[in-house]
Amino acid sequence: MKEILLGITASMFFAVTFVLNRSMEVAGGSWMWSSSLRFIFMVPFLIFIVLIRHNIKQVILELKKAPLPWLGWSFVGFVLFYAPLTYAAAYGPGWLVAGTWQVTILGGILVAPLFYYTVQTETGPLKQRHRIQKKALLVSTIILIGVMLIQFQKMGDLTFSEALAGILPVLVASFAYPLGNRKMMVLCDGRLDTFQRVLGMTIASLPFWLILCIVALFRVGAPSQGQLFQSFIVAVCSGVIATTLFFIATDRVRLHQGKLAAVEATQSTQVLFVVVGESLLLASPLPGNVAMAGIGIIIFGIIMHSFSVRGAASKTGALPKVRKKVL
User: pLDDT by residue (tens digit) across 63-75?
Assistant: First the structure.
């Protein structure tokens, strides 16, 4: 399944976020600058991409047509996603944040009942809620067990307060990201491509990031050159490349909840890339036997997702085109 490969590739670039955010915090940088600078740096890149594709006018029209939903769901999908992640990096290592973040593969499945689709019946259109995909939920739970095994060998090095501060904000982000992403897919309803949607969400979230910049300036002062450079790298790798690849993958399967869950489950591979990245850049120890078993379970779970999606596609054939609406 091409979408799963896209999701794994996106996860590799997403992993840069966890490694460099931790690196900036260790060097004394503020989480407020780490989060806000990423999205500010994203804007010129996205504008350039959309401009050369000659379709920026549609973005402006969509933003004008529904400014409040754009502001609200961009806040959920970007601000409530990334600000808690960078905050958690101040209190916990990258592997803890990345591992806890994998709850998002369950979050994406559990938010499904918040959406509905319309089917045509003999008596007219009928609205139905999406159901939680039980098979996808089971496989995603297996993947989470693998993630927990990776974390097991290092959990003893943390105090209770460090673990709490490194986990709770990430749990908020884990549900905010898939919810905001899916709500925006429904709001755009295929009228915008991935680059346009990412640009629109980034622009809509800018007021919140600018406010955070002002707070950071008064509380901790200006960011260092090192933090500016690393935030720029995060913006390119994670904000532009990874987000775009992931949104392309989810856009392609947005009408099929099972496939959507499978693509979202590929984010579990971020833990693998973070472990390797922290070992190389921050001199963290390599995983032990228990963690290696967890890695094997993650790979097994993603393979199960891939086969279950293929099996569902072969049974049902082409998917009917349904129109999803926001509640």
Answer: 999 999 999 999 9
